[in-house]
């Protein structure tokens, strides 16, 4: 009797284990072919599907930051142990900032993509931070409640597919233990997240931006094409370093000496210390100059020369200046930082 009893119990336990495993597998959604990112934290996990087709650049950069293929973060997982530094209850979660303050950014910045298959009008959508027309890769947010207005500023690139019920349980200062990139199917397996592939996608984004400017702001597009290999700051200033400087970049309160020449998009010069033959001296952040100048000078080193194209919102905005600069004018400056005290 004891032997038969033990045999029955063994079969019963095996059957129970089978049923339990079936129930567990059945409760989990089977992932379709695609590229996924699973966030692990507090013995929980949530999984997002990345929009490889509609937002390939953002998807590649995010996966590259996770797996350490991006040059700036090579061989390290950028997001490991970072905190959700801010939560807006019922609205959004914010993370991906190495300083855990919301003020840190990476050097990875590129024109905003607008072909996403997703919308921030839905909940559980992931997007990088940025400015209108400009993406700052690294720091990101996740929507808890959809807000379609955000689509005008940010490009969504991933949607939650598992663990949505856990989103509202994430609190401020919750740490991301790790993020795992999962590739299912040939398309995901072949999706290139190397630095060279990302560089190519950024070049394509720049060309798309230039094509849009050719239609909307042909004078600006012509200037940028003439400048050639330009870069763009996170705030939207186009610039080209004409020659490098050395030393420490100036800070607020430093006295700087500069030579400059300023002109409009049509080439009309409106001011030039170079023509006057007298350098201009100013106390940075104290003396009144346009915001685009302050930002530019604080990123230059003594001896450096730059060509900068400053958008209206960092210049005089909707106001006029003098008899030459009209409302909403883009301004072109050649600036030489001669000395910093």
Strand content of the residues, in percent?
Answer: 25-35%
Structural category: alpha+beta
Spans with pLDDT under 50 lasting ≥5 residues? 21-28
Considering DSSP H and I runs of 4 or more, what fraction of the residues is helical? 10-25%
- End-to-end Cα distance: 97 Å
Task: Describe the largest sheet.
Answer: 9 strands, antiparallel
Rg (C-alpha, Å):
26 Å
**What is the number of E strands?**
16
Sum up the overall morphology in one term: elongated
- Note the run of SSEs as H and E: HEEHEEEEEEEHHHEEEEHEHEE
Q: With helices defined by DSSP (H or I, 4 residues minimum), what is the helix count?
A: 7
Mean pLDDT level: 88
What does the secondary structure layout of this molecule look like, with pairings?
Blueprint: H1 2-27, E1 34-41, E2 44-50, H2 56-67, E3 86-88, E4 92-95, E5 109-111, E6 125-131, E7 134-143, E8 156-162, E9 178-184, H3 186-189, H4 195-216, H5 218-227, E10 231-232, E11 238-243, E12 255-264, E13 269-272, H6 273-276, E14 280-283, H7 291-297, E15 305-310, E16 331-340
Antiparallel strand pairs: 1-2, 1-9, 2-8, 3-4, 4-7, 5-7, 6-7, 6-8, 10-11, 11-15, 12-13, 12-14, 12-16, 15-16
Helix pairs in contact: 2-4, 4-5
Describe the structure.
- There is one protein chain.
- The protein has 341 residues and is α+β, with helices and mostly antiparallel strands.
- The chain is 25% helix and 29% strand.
- The strands form two sheets. Strands 1, 2, 3, 4, 5, 6, 7, 8 and 9 form a nine-stranded antiparallel β-sheet that branches.
- The longest helix is centred in the first third of the chain and has 26 residues.
- The radius of gyration is 26 Å and the shape is elongated.
